[in-house]
Amino acid sequence: MEKEIGMQMDAQQKGVLLIPMPEEVDQCSAVEIRNNADYKIMKEGYRDIIFDFSQTSFMDSSGIGIILGRYRLVHVIGGGIYIVNASPRIQKIIRAAGLDRIVTFIN
Amino acid sequence: MKNEMELWFTARGENESLARMAVASFLATGNPTIEEIADVKTAVSEAVTNGIVHGYHNGDDREQADEEKKIHMFCKMEGPDFTVIIEDKGCGIEDIPKAMEPMYTSRPDLERSGMGFSFMQTFMDELEVKSTPGKGTVIQMKKRIAGNLCTSEDAVWSQK
After folding, report:
1. Any CB–CB contact under 8 A between A91 and chain B?
2. SS3 A56
3. Distance CA B18, CA B44 (A)
4. How far apart are the first and last CA of chain A?
5. Taking CA A46 as the corner, what is the angle to CA A43 and CA A48, rounded to the nearest 5 degrees?
6. What is the pLDDT of residue B68?
7. Which of B13, B42, B111 sits opposite A65 (nearest CB)?
8. What is the pLDDT of residues A6-16, one digit of tens each?
9. What is the value of ipTM here, to two decimals?
10. CA end-to-end span of chain B, whole Å?
11. Residue B46 catalytic?
12. What local confidence, expressed as pLDDT, does residue B152 receive?
């Protein structure tokens, strides 16, 4: 029984994937973020994604592509996208692309 | 005051940050606000990435980057008016209005969001795109730097 509860908790923790975003999110850094994230989403079965922008000072539309791509992956299985520690600038970029309708900001 | 800068660099992804840093340093001479620097950096990043990924297909995982392919960037500051021109000699754009539609991308495989031109329009005052298929693309953007309207010289002058 104890083991079962432990496994359940493990599964719950596994349900959320935390993606630390780099200092600069552009097309150059996007490829690696995408590949790492998708490997984990596919192999380990994550449902909800948290993008952590605490280290990020710059992002262009490549970041929008990353968020949108992961949204498409987890949306079909009922998952959501959460944005944490985004500076006003990063939030502005996300809003300018209209992604504030599909992500949840947590600060 | 008039100030100009010209830069040629290889169309590699690693040079996107070089272009942003160069334009931010150049802009700093015009006494901009932090927000204005961020707007210009975003717009320049979009234009340069377009040149690399779409003009030259150098963002491609399948192809080896061609080191002979170059991006040309020209910046001008004339009073408060900032102009930046970003040029590639790549494949060009067949249908510019289509390319400029928000969310449209010719490279969904690279997960390009299709927001590049929209961001250039959002964060700059003027955007002009000229392209010849097979010859290349020229993107010209302008922005009035409001931070520039009160220079340190003006501030000293007003105290007299």
Report:
1. no
2. coil
3. 11
4. 37
5. 160
6. 82
7. B111
8. 444 444 456 79
9. 0.85
10. 22
11. yes
12. 52
The burial class, CB within 10 Å (0-12 / 13-18 / 19+), for A4 is exposed
Token duo for residue B98: 């289509």
* B58 part of the active site: no
Residue B112 confidence (pLDDT):
87
Q: Closest partner residue to B46 among A58, A61, A68, by Cβ?
A: A61
The DSSP annotation for A60-81 comes to -HHHHHHHHHHHHHHHTTT--E
| B28-32 contact pairs (CB < 8 A, 24+) | B29/B3, B29/B77, B30/B3, B30/B77, B30/B80, B30/B82, B30/B145, B30/B147, B30/B148, B31/B145, B31/B147, B31/B148, B31/B151, B31/B152, B32/B145, B32/B147, B32/B148
Q: For tokens 């007299």, what's the residue? A: B160
Half-sphere exposure of B31 (CA within 13 A, CB side): 14
* Structure-token match 């080191």, residue found: B67
